[in-house]
Design a protein that fits this description.
Blueprint: E1 3-9, H1 12-21, E2 28-34
Parallel strand pairs: 1-2
């Protein structure tokens, strides 16, 4: 049975964590909730 993994966050840290988890996609179900924002400047 596959484990369900959810990454919640924003910025570079979440992207690095999700990329590392991609190597285990045959063993896990991976989802990500990523926030996006811009200062407008």
């Amino acid at each position: 049975m596959k484990k369900n993994i959810v990454a919640i966050g924003g910025g570079n840290g979440t992207a690095v964590s999700v990329q590392a988890c991609k190597t285990f996609l045959d063993q896990i179900n991976l989802s990500a909730v990523v926030s996006m924002s811009d200062s407008g400047g």
